[in-house]
Each structure stands twice: as C-alpha cells, then as structure tokens.
Design a protein that fits this description.
This protein is an all-alpha fold. Helix content is 72%, strand content 0%. It has one domain. The chain contains 20 helices and no strands. Helix 2 runs parallel beside helix 14. About 2% of the residues have low confidence.
Length: 412
C-alpha cells in the first residue's frame, strides 16, 4: 500500500509541476481530484477518515472570501478600477504606478486570483487603446497581486491555508508581513519600470489607436455595501470568533440580496481551486499515514535541514513554487510538518508568495493574467513575465529575509 500511495503522490505532484499529465486533458484541479479518488478507492484513506482528511475551515474561509470578492465584481468595482487606470492622464510610468498600487492594495484584502481575473482583460484593452504596450502593465498587475497578497492571511490561497493550519492571529500576521509586502510593491514597480523602459512611452504622433473598451458601470451603492462587509469582516477577525465562521456569516449576508441572484454569485466562485485543495488534502493525508513524511522530517532534523531557517526555506520555496506551484507546495509542506513554529509560518507565507513572481508558472495569479490577457487580444507569455519577474522576486525575497531576521521572527 505504501508503494501505491507514494506512486500516486509522485504522479499528482508531477502533474502539478507540468500543469497536466502527458496525453490527458486533466488540469491541476482534475489531477488532484483523480489522485484523491485513487487513494480513497485503494483503501489508503478509509471512508471513515476521508472527511477528516479535508481541512474544511480552510475551504469555508476561501469560499466565503470568493463570495465577498464576487460581490465587488458584480457591482463593477474591479472593472471600474481597471478602466480608471487605463483612462487616467499622465505618463506611462504613472499609469504603471497606479496599476501596482491598486492591484497590490486590492489583493491584500481580497483573494488575488479573483482580482486579476476580473481586472486583466479591461486593463489590457484600455492600455492598448492608448497605443501603449499592455505587457509592462500586465507584469505590474501580476507582480503586485502576488506581492500585495503577502500582507495578510486572506490575500491568497496559500496564506489562507497557513493561517488556518497554524492558527495564526490575523493582525499579528499583518504586523509581520505587511511591511515587507509594501516594500515588495516598490520593488515590483522599479523592476518593471527598468525592464520595460523601452515600451513605456507615449503613443507616436498620428498613431491609429484601436477602439476603446466599452464603458464600465459602477454600482456605487452595492460597492459601498461590499466595502462595509469587508470592514465588518476585518473587525470580526479581531474577535475570538473563528475566522471561517466570521467569513461565512458575512458571505451569507451578501448572498441574501434582492439585486444579485444566488446562482450568479455562486458562478463567480472558483470551484476548481476549491477542488484542488480538497484533492491535495486527501492525497497528503494518505502519504502522512504511511509514516514516510515523519521519517523524512526526522532525517532532516538530524542534518539541520528543517525549513525553519531561511537558508533552507527561501531556496526551497523558490524551487517548489516554480515547479509544483506555491499552493500545492504549501499544502505539501504543512502536511509533512504541521507543527511548524509561528515564525517559520510567517516566513513560509512571505517566501512562497513572493517566490511566485519568479516564473509565469509560479502562481495561479500569473497564469490567470496570461490567460485573461490572451482572451483580450494581448500577448503575455513566459519570457514577458520573466523579464521583470526574476529580478522582482530576488529583490523582494532578499528584503523580506532581511526584515524577518532583523525582527527575530526566524533565523538565517
């Protein structure tokens, strides 16, 4: 049984790295679910333990935040933010600054994947309509979405997992991680500005510009309601109420709407991402039951290679995030070592998130930007992302490491 579970685990994470299994049309979510079905059908995870293998508080919190973000999207808030950037007057460098600032700020309090999903097409079309190359702005949006999301426990899926499994305090986490996340936004801006300086120039005189995107509509009343719901949620995070229950209560209120049908709101939920988490929880539980992770952890401890030091954690996060992806990497690491110290958990959240900017495959947010840009007629490929992604990652991770060591949260 151990050999079978290990084979399924290796195949599943190989699929995470490749994005698919050769010869099959399975994406990462499909691979995770099929792997979970395989370990369940083999008896490696008995029926009585199957539900216990799934960390439902994480799924509930992620689902609830998606509902909150969907309410902003339905009100036209994200569309208006992207359109405002595209139509703002000023030099391209200023437009890039707006892109990084707005993308980073929104990603800190709303799930970054949804932010870039909604904003990317309109931003790409709006920038192109001004006769500018959309790629620097797409690089800025992707980089800012990752860097900004590192600031809080609700900014991205991997931070949500870390916060739930580690029972981290929301505001204490922000006190540690928000300053390096803010500094990383500056790094993102500077790196994109330098790497794409040749493309950041005004339209040539007499250039024929494409038609601008259709006007956006912002429902100010519904946006205000969503904003109040966000403030209420942040306030509830300061109470003893479990985060997932607080978020679920807010989501329930938002679903009780006279304007937006429940079906419309639920259609905005990223169900494949929730299924990805579900499948990985089951697969990792099956591997943990074999005892192999515990043996591996003991061997690492004997050699001083535990990922509680930056010398191990930082390169490990960089390598894993850009092969299997930062979400699967975090789920796997926490399955191997669920009792990771709080300081190491803060470092894991920062390093795995910032490492996602290195290559296009490093985070789901990057892939969403590339796919949504393509749907809007803009090109944003692997080399386009790496052009600024590599230096912004190395610079932001170095700053975050210095901050963590200086604050005494983790050793080098």
């Amino acid at each position: 049984m151990t050999v079978l579970v290990l084979a399924i685990f290796v195949l599943a994470y190989l699929g995470m790295a490749l994005g698919r299994l050769p010869g099959l049309a399975l994406d990462r979510s499909g691979i995770a679910i099929v792997a979970a079905i395989a370990v369940a059908a083999s008896g490696a995870v008995p029926e009585g333990r199957l539900l216990g293998a799934i960390h439902f508080p994480t799924l509930i919190l992620l689902f609830s935040l998606m509902i909150l973000s969907a309410r902003f999207a339905a009100a036209g808030f994200y569309d208006e933010a992207a359109a405002w950037i595209a139509r703002s007057s000023g030099r391209p460098a200023l437009l890039l600054a707006f892109t990084v600032a707005i993308g980073g700020a929104l990603s800190a309090v709303l799930v970054n994947d949804i932010v870039v999903f909604v904003m990317t097409p309109l931003l790409a079309r709006g920038i192109a309509a001004r006769g500018l190359d959309p790629r620097p702005f797409l690089a800025g949006l992707a980089g800012a979405a990752n860097a900004g999301s590192a600031a809080t426990l609700i900014g991205n899926p991997q931070n949500i997992v870390i916060g739930q499994v580690g029972s981290l305090d929301f505001w204490a986490f922000a006190a540690v991680c928000a300053p390096p996340a803010l500094a990383s936004l500056v790094v993102v801006y500077v790196c994109v500005l330098i790497a794409w300086r040749g493309s950041l120039r005004a339209p040539a005189p007499g250039a024929v510009l494409p038609d601008p995107p259709a006007p956006t509509f912002l429902d100010r009343r519904q946006t205000a309601k969503a904003g109040l719901a966000t403030l209420a949620l942040l306030a509830l995070f300061a109470t003893p109420i479990p985060r997932e229950l607080a978020a679920l209560a807010v989501a329930g209120v938002l679903l009780t709407s006279r304007r937006y049908a429940t079906r419309t709101m639920l259609a905005s939920v990223d169900w494949p991402l929730l299924l990805l988490f579900t499948g990985l929880f089951v697969v990792n539980d099956a591997l943990a039951a074999t005892g192999l992770p515990a043996d591996a952890l003991a061997a690492l401890a004997e050699r001083g290679w535990l990922p509680d030091r930056l010398a191990v954690l930082a390169p490990g996060a960089l390598a894993l995030s850009n092969t299997i992806g930062n979400v699967p990497a975090v789920v796997m690491l926490l399955a191997v070592w669920p009792q990771m110290p709080a300081g190491a958990l803060h470092a894991l959240a920062l390093m795995s998130t910032l490492a996602g900017n290195f290559l296009l495959v490093g985070s789901i947010a990057n892939l969403i930007v590339a796919e949504r840009a393509h749907s809007a007629g803009a090109r944003f490929g692997f080399a386009d992302h790496a052009r600024a992604g590599i230096p912004m990652t190395l610079g932001s991770m170095a700053l975050a490491a210095a901050w963590l060591v200086a604050g005494g949260w983790v050793s080098w």
